Amino acid sequence: MRLQELCEFCDEYLQVGEFDDYCPNGLQVEANPEVRHIVCGVTASQALIEAAAAAGADTILVHHGYFWKGESQPLTGVKGRRIASLIRNDINLLAYHLPLDAHAEVGNNVQLAALMDWRVEDRFGEQNLVLEGRPARAQSLADLAAEIDRRLDTRALAISAGEHEIRRLAWCSGAAQGFIETAAVRGVDAFVSGEVSEPTFHLAREMGLHYIAAGHHATERYGVQALAAKIADRFGIRQQFIDIPNPV
Ligand SMILES: [Zn+2]
User: Fold this and answer.
1) Structure pTM?
2) How far is residue 209 CA from its own chain's centroid?
3) Res 217: pLDDT
4) What is the C-alpha separation between 63 and 94, in angstroms, rounded?
């Protein structure tokens, strides 16, 4: 398919115009007018670009692309090498950030719920990014953390705020630990995100909700895979996910 057709489909399907984001969503590097083989991944690192080139891909689709607000603009150093590699290998880069966290079908947060068997009941927070719902059964913090480890192939950090069981929880993939106070106001028993900061420990205990940091990478592997599968289904394009493991 034509690159332009792919970009138009993704931009519209993910409603990129609805979001106020820290990076451009959509086509970030244009290097090939034809799309036959998409490699998807979490982050457009040098390792992912090299793996995609070795696989013969013409397009990379990621959650974390380039050109973040506040970063240095020149194409030098790491950023220069990555972009030079894309162009040298005739590989396009498409990146979708917040629209791919929030999307109702392929979003990271909905995909996380499906994988964990959590029922989605509501959403809240800045740009409605945080989901709220219930686990399949009431469970202890230790049980929930163990289940996350198993299903996400990660090593979650669990911060206990007491003995209470988890009947209602809220979750948001990535570096969303800052939403813990908003989650506490909703009255949930636990909040699950990707990363953790020093203040999170005290906030969890003092506000009385358990906190689980399940890994930024581990919680954001699924949206991009669901989007690539959707594209493959609809347009008959070859796609594959390449995981570049990251313990954070
Ligand atoms: Zn992220």
Assistant:
1) 0.96
2) 23
3) 98
4) 9
Centroid of ligand 1 to alpha carbon of 15 (angstroms) = 18
Looking at the chain, which runs of residues are DSSP E strands? 26-29, 37-43, 59-64, 92-95, 119-124, 130-134, 157-159, 169-171, 190-193, 210-213, 238-241
**33 CB-near residues (< 8 Å, 6+ apart):** 2, 3, 4
CB atoms within 5 A of ion ligand 1 belong to 174, 220
CA of 90 to the centre of ligand 1 (A): 26
Residue 42's pLDDT is 98
Give the number of C-alpha atoms closer than 13 A to the C-alpha of residue 54, restricted to the C-beta side: 7
- pLDDT (tens digit, 9 = 90+) per residue, 138-194? 999 999 999 999 999 999 999 999 999 999 999 999 999 999 999 999 999 999 999
Residues 211 and 180 sit within 8 Å (Cβ to Cβ): yes
What pLDDT score was predicted for residue 243?
Answer: 98
The DSSP code for 159 is E
